[in-house]
Amino acid sequence: MPTPPTSKSPLTVSAEWQALRAHQQQIANATLAERFSANPWRVSKFSLELDGLLLDFSRHFLSDETLPLLTGLARARGLQGWIERMFNGAPINHTENRAVLHVALRADTPVLCGGHDVTLDVQRVLAQMESFVTAIRNGVHTGHTGLRFTDVVNIGIGGSYLGPQLACQALRPYTDGTMRAHFVSNVDGENLSAVVGQLNAATTLFVITSKTFTTQETMTNALAARRWLVAQLGSEAAVGRHFAAVTSNTGKVAQFGIPPAQMFEMWDWVGGRYSLWSAVGLPVALYAGMEAFRSLLAGARAMDKHFRTAHLERNMPVVLGLLDVWYINFFKTQSRAVLPYAQAASRLPAYLQQLEMESLGKAVARDGSRVDYATGNIVWGEPGTDSQHSFFQLLHQGTPLIPADLIAACRNPSGFNAQHPLLLANFFAQGEALMNGKPDSNAPHAAVPGNRPSTSILLEELDAKHLGMLLALYEHKVFVQSVIWDLNAFDQWGVALGKQVADRILPTLTASEPATAFDASTNGLINYYRQKR
Ligand code: F6P
User: How does DSSP classify residue 370?
Assistant: First the structure.
């Protein structure tokens, strides 16, 4: 645990913060259900719509005064200035002295970074992706033996995996079956083994996705996949046709044997967890087609424009970010559940875990001081309806207050879509049940208290455009929180330590002497492993 701060932060002593604290005390007594019966217009006041994405935030502890107070805090923290700094390429990732320009990856107007229009680079790589994707999907670029590619395997982890995997899964109903997509992320050899075990090397294309091209898990899997391919096809020369790379570390790619035409550049101003929109989306484009990938970008662009221009109280990412601040700091919640009522979005919770927890899991403010307020919390979830039969019990009757995001799509183009109304009935039912509960004076164990807040996000369809909008909505929501909390949402120093320790431990696992260099627990575990393996 970080040592507690010695003096109060400017945030917690601010008039806006103090006003919110007092306001929370005032409104805590009225239940959500009472608020609804007192104000039938609540939904129109507390919902927003943009291009087929409906955000209903009426089931939250909000009175007429709450949003003005929260947006007052956002103004006092200079949110609009920070938004402009991000869109204008200022080095707001100050610990790495980098601009943060994932918005440039989907921009349709120039974006200057250090005087250079980075959208020119973006367009160049998009054109390179387009010609590669077309050649692969048309069978012009074949494998080493002349067969067309049927399968793409993305080798990458974290941001080089979670976004592409989510997008491929979400867009499956829109694909034409030209290619299948697979993902290898875990350094556990079982992951690679299970994937390549079902593939024909002659028709398999590997995409190594790693911003740094040094991530141990990814490089280990990439080298193992390379050995597998060469053994299967009996030729080193096959590597040049069967591997592509996405990275900002261009020098390393040639050493691997990948030709420059199959190397897709990304830049240091794209953070890993914000990189789906870059060439990191190559597997998505190979799987679902370049048109789908461009629609994904267009959806995100629509959300970017909304974020940059909408009034703070009518601004979706601002509202969502401020709601999280409201709950985390003033209701002391410790987690938020993400519940997609869409099997195709079943990886959304995992994607948001990295986006939110790697961005906001920090306790040091921009000036280096310890914060004296709670920051990022736990994001977790699983798709409904499955999760209704596992952890919903806790949501309905447990002691913690857990706000939930319920997400669904109005249309579902998959097969068996006659079942879609039943899925949606459950989506609608849970928001209502969480809020209203059900009294039972005879059997206390059967009483459901209700008064559990939730956000409902209803998409016209979970197609590429709306997926792009949804993910950009969450990206900007996280940014809003980082501004309120004075955090750098774009570094991740905390994850480096475990990697360094693993590097020190690795040689001891096969050394001739038992381990003694670590703490007694680590030594004991290593030595038990050495005996048993
Ligand atoms: O886990 C830390 C991290 O740096 C993530 O932020 C990143 O998405 C992931 O590792 C993968 O990094 P790379 O794309 O460089 O392999």
Answer: B
